[in-house]
Amino acid sequence: MPTVGSDVVIAGIGETPVGRLPGWSPVEIQAAAVLAALRDAGFALSDLDGLINLDPYATPNSMFSSTLAEHLGVAPRFACTVDVGGTVTGMTMLQQAVWAIESGYCEVAACVYGENALTGRPAGAQGLHMHNLLGGEEWEEPFGLHGMVIPYALLAQRYLDLYGATDADLAAVALVTRRHALLNDNAQMRKPMTLEDYRASRQISSPLRLLDCSLVSDGGGALVLTRIGRAPQGRGRGVAIRAIGMKTTHNSVALMPDIPELGMAAAGADAYEAAGMGPEDIQVANLHDAFTISVLVSLEALGFARPGEGGALVRSGAMDLGGRWPLNPHGGLLSQAHIGGMLHITEAVRQLRGEAGRRQVEGARRALVSGNGGIFSVCGAMILEKP
Amino acid sequence: MLDLLATSPNPTGASAPFWDACDRGELLFPKCGRCGHLFYYPRRHCPLCGDTALGWQRMSGRGTVFSHSHVHVAFQGGAWSGQLPYTVVLVDLAEGPRMLSRLIGDDASTVRGGDAVSVVFPRIGDRRYPFFQRAAAG
Ligand SMILES: [Zn+2]
Q: Residue B75 and residue A149: Cβ atoms within 8 Å?
C-alpha cells in the first residue's frame, strides 16, 4: 500500500491569469506561478532549493527544469522535469517533492507547469506537438487516429453502449462545470451554458461535441512544499497530502481495458486504503475533466456513483456547489482552463483553506483530486486534507 | 469517397512481417511460442511471459465492433480534411485480440457496437492497409 504520511505539506499555491497571455513565454509563465506560490507561502526566492516542472506540450523542450531554474535565478539542490500524463504529472511532482524533502535533498520545493498553448503554438501547428506522438505512429495514425479527442470518443461511445447512457449524461458534466466557472473570475468561459447550447455545438468526433472537450489555454499553476515547521505560515495554512494512488495500464487505445477495469479504480482503492477513507469522507471532488466522459468514468471508478450511474448523479445536483460532492468548483479543464490539472490541485488547497470566496464548499475538510493521462493510460487519485 | 489517405507506419524489423503480410492481403498477428499468447501489436517479445520465441498466426479477419467514432475534424490538418467524415473503429477479432482500424464503405456511417466486420486491404500509396468494412457489405 503506497503511503505519503509525512510532515511535508503544501504551504503555498500560485496561479497566473488564464486564457490568452500574448507576449508571455512558457518559462516566464512558469516563473510567475512559482513566484506567486512562494509569496503565498511566505518564502523568499532565495529559500527555493527544489524545483520540479513539466515542459510545454505545444513547444517541447529538453532539460526544462534547468531552463526554469536559471530564469528564476536559483540554483536548486534538486531539480527535475516529469511527464507522466494529465493531472498525474502534478501528483508525481508532489510525490517527488515529498521524497526530496524527506530525504534531505531540499527544504523548499516548487512544483509547476504552465505554457502558452493557446497563443504560443508554432504557426500552422494543429493540436499539441507531442515529441513522442503518444506512441501512436505505427498503430494509430495510419488509421486516422490523431490527437486526444478520437480516443476519448471511442471511450465515450463504449460507455454509451455499455450502460445505455445518453448525451444528456455527458452534457450534465459540461453544464455543472460551466455553472462553477461563472463563479471564478479567473476562468476562460464566462457565459452560461444550456443543454440546448450543448446540443447545438458541433460534432468533433462522435459522440463528443465541442462542449465535451476541455479548453486550450495559456496559464500556469504552482505549489510550494516544505515541512510544517519550516513554513512561515505555520500549521494554519499547510494542506496535507494524505494519500496518492497511481496505476498505469496501457498507452494506446487498442490496449485500453474495458471501462470497469480501467486503472482509476485501482488508483482510487490504493488512495482510499492508504488514507483509511472512502468517498463518504470527501467534500470536494476535483476530477480530471479533459472530456466530459472522463468525469463519468472517474466518478464510477472512485465510488461516487455505481457503474453507469455517473450521469444520474451529476444531474441530481450532487456535484453542484451545495451538493454532496461539488465537482471542480473552479470550473475545471472544461470551463476554467486546461493547465494540465495543476489548477485542480491549487483549487483543492484553496478550498481546504476556506479561501475560495463565493465558490467555497461549506465544511470542506478533504478533497479528492483525480488525474488521468493518455486515454486513462495512467490514472491517479490523491486525497488532500485540511490541517 | 475521395481517395483514402494513410500515413506510413514506418515498420521496425519486428513489425515488418505484419505490414508485408498486409501487402499480400493477409492479416498476421504474433503468437508466443512458449505460452501461446496471441497479441496485438507486434513486438520482439511476448507481453504476457516475456519470451522472445515468437511466430505468426494468420487471422480470419472477422470481428465485431467494440467501439467506433465518426471523425468530423482533421486533427492533422490539410490533407485529412478530404477524408471527413471518416470512421475509426476498435475491432475485437474473432481470435481474441483487439485492434484499432478504420471502417470504410458507404454503410460505415450507421455502424453500431457489436456489428460484424471483416478486414479489407485497400492500396494507399505504396502499401496496403488493414482496414475493415461491415460484414454485411462484403
Ligand atoms: Zn508468452
A: yes
